[in-house]
């Protein structure tokens, strides 16, 4: 059982990495990517803790190999906590749509976390100018996750993969 869980976590970390590293969407303040969507799906498939490992490792690896060395540790921590928050909400609230509430709260944490790090790196004014791009990226991830969850849930694939 442990090998199976480790394998699923590693596969999701690889999907997070690919969704960030390969599928970049250029923007005025950097780039957006599909990684947040894969992190949120990781939480749905693996749970909060394993989803946090998959999201943190995949995103940090994308920063490392993408040449953004100064972002490796902040990205690992921010993405992992985003996933943990979502997982916590899913476990505590037992009604339909709780994953979305958790994803939104995790997304808010991500925006605050990255903005705080950007204030430290670049100063307050620059961080504030970059925040709208982060809002768009986070919203994009939430919308894409909603679409994927709808499609995968309707076809039963989400349940089957979770049970594997």
Q: What does this protein structure show overall?
A:
With 164 residues, the protein is mainly alpha-helical. The protein has a single domain, classed as Arp2/3 complex 21 kDa subunit ARPC3, CATH 1.10.1760.20. The protein has 7 helices and 2 strands, in the order αββαααααα. It has a two-stranded antiparallel sheet. β1 (25-27) and β2 (30-32) form a beta hairpin. The protein starts with a helix and ends with a helix. It comes from Anaerotignum lactatifermentans DSM 14214.
Summarize the structure.
This protein is mostly helical and 164 residues long. Helix content is 83%, strand content 4%. One of its GO terms (cellular component) is membrane.
> If you consult CATH, what is the topology?
Arp2/3 complex 21 kDa subunit ARPC3
Rg value: 15 Å
How many β-strand stretches? Answer: 2
* Mean model confidence by pLDDT: 90
Enumerate the strands of the largest sheet in spatial order, edge to edge or round the barrel: 1-2
User: The biggest beta sheet, please?
Assistant: 2 strands, antiparallel
How far the N terminus sits from the C terminus, by CA atoms, comes to 10 Å
CATH architecture: Orthogonal Bundle
Estimate the global geometry from the Cα principal axes: globular
Number of domains as seen in the coordinates: 1
Structural class based on helices, strands and sheet pairing: mainly alpha
Model regions low in confidence, pLDDT < 50 over at least 5 residues: none
Q: In percent terms, what proportion of residues is strand?
A: under 5%
The top level CATH class name: Mainly Alpha
Secondary-structure element order, as H and E?
HEEHHHHHH
């Amino acid at each position: 059982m442990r090998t199976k869980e480790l394998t699923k976590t590693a596969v999701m970390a690889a999907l997070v990495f690919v969704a960030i590293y390969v599928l970049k969407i250029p923007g005025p303040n950097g780039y957006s990517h599909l990684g947040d969507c894969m992190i949120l799906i990781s939480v749905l498939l693996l749970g909060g803790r394993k989803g946090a490992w998959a999201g943190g490792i995949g995103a940090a690896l994308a920063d490392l190999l993408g040449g953004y060395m100064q972002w490796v540790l902040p990205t690992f921590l921010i993405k992992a906590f985003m996933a943990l928050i979502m997982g916590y909400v899913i476990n505590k609230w037992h009604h339909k749509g709780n994953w979305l509430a958790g994803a939104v709260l995790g997304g808010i944490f991500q925006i605050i976390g990255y903005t705080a790090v950007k204030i430290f790196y670049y100063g307050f004014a620059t961080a504030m100018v970059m925040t709208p791009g982060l809002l768009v990226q986070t919203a994009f991830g939430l919308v894409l996750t909603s679409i994927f969850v709808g499609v995968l849930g309707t076809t039963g694939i989400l349940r089957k993969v979770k049970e594997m």
